[in-house]
């Protein structure tokens, strides 16, 4: 059974995606080490998220998705950070609007939704940046955008070094484009109730994420963005999709937290963290097709180490706070799925 599991994992893993994301993120951290600028952690985060937002099949699709994400997440981060400077209420209203619009993109397919929801994720992480409103407080956004653009350039360069692989995917891209066109036409012809269902999902996502944001502010929880991120990445159009995903995220986060604590005990300097991030992000991206729990198990320590690049002390208490926030976000996502327009789920199942 173990041999079968390893064979299946190896078959699904995408090592090239792992190398692209890991090299871009680790490079940003190494530059930060050389220049003694801890805020280069934002460049590494930008590089990592841009890699996650990359569309499959075709250099043109890849470039469009990466540049779209870079622009949307940077502008969205600027807007939400600026709004939060007027207080939590203003920040919450901005998040509600941005996340709801991101949720609406699901109507047009998975590729636009992937870019939009990751851009929304960037916004909920940036919204409470402590330097907001101060002189030069938005400089981190420049570093973040630099990371996005570096990841894009590196990805496109690696793609150009593999023309044979590009040709192999050419036919697959055309087939995928044809399928997407047929799906778009089918959606346009669909009954108005399906559109209503998409709007309900977008509103549910926006309300749940905003509720998580307000909850962590009311409770004064540190690292509260882990709760809002959990809502964004867990909540699905139906309870049948949200409940398993919440359990998978809880298991993956628990395992990832232990990995983060173990590595944090060994990696005590920014350089050591930068070196540790490379294999972690590589595994995160490479194993993403294997399963959501596996993906989260490596995503958690990757993000913890990058986010804590400027303060490398990671102990059990610090990691536990992140786990608690994830569980809070998961609970809010499940509650929103069960209480906000649940009738649509029952109608879908009975039809």
TrEMBL record:
It holds the Pfam family FUSC_2. Its main location: membrane. Residues 212-335 form the Integral membrane bound transporter domain. It is a multi-pass membrane protein. The chain crosses the membrane at residues 67-99, 111-132, 138-159, 255-278, 290-307, 327-344. InterPro entries: Memb_transporter_dom. One of its GO terms (cellular component) is plasma membrane. Keywords: Cell membrane, Membrane, Transmembrane, Transmembrane helix. It is found in: Cell membrane. Belongs to the YccS/YhfK family. This is Integral membrane bound transporter domain-containing protein.
């Amino acid at each position: 059974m173990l041999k079968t599991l390893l064979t299946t994992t190896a078959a699904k893993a995408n090592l090239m995606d792992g190398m692209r994301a890991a090299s871009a993120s680790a490079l940003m951290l190494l530059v930060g080490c050389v220049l003694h600028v801890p805020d280069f952690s934002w460049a590494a985060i930008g590089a990592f998220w841009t890699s996650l937002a990359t569309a499959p099949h075709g250099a043109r699709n890849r470039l469009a998705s990466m540049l779209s994400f870079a622009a949307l997440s940077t502008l969205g981060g600027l807007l939400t950070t600026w709004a939060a400077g007027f207080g939590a209420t203003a920040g919450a209203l901005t998040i509600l609007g941005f996340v709801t619009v991101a949720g609406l993109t699901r109507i047009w397919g998975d590729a636009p939704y992937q870019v939009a929801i990751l851009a929304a994720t960037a916004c909920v992480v940036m919204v409470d940046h402590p330097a907001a409103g101060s002189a030069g407080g938005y400089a981190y956004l420049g570093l973040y955008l630099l990371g996005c653009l570096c990841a894009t350039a590196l990805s496109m360069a690696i793609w150009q070094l593999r023309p044979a692989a590009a040709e192999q995917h050419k036919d697959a891209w055309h087939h995928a484009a044809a399928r997407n066109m047929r799906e778009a036409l089918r959606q346009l012809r669909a009954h108005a109730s399906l559109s209503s269902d998409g709007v309900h999902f977008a509103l549910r996502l926006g309300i749940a994420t905003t509720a998580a944001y307000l909850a962590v502010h009311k409770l004064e929880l540190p690292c509260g963005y882990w709760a809002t991120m959990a809502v964004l990445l867990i909540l699905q159009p139906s309870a049948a999709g949200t409940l398993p995903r919440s359990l998978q995220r809880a298991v993956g986060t628990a395992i990832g937290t232990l990995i983060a604590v173990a590595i944090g005990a060994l990696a005590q300097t920014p350089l050591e963290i930068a070196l540790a991030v490379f294999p972690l992000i590589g595994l995160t991206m490479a194993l993403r097709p294997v399963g959501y729990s596996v993906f989260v198990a490596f995503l958690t320590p990757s993000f913890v180490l990058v986010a804590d690049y400027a303060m490398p002390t990671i102990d059990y208490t610090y990691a536990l706070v992140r786990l608690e926030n994830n569980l809070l976000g998961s609970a809010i996502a499940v509650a929103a799925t069960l209480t906000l327009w649940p009738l649509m789920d029952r109608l879908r199942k009975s039809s």
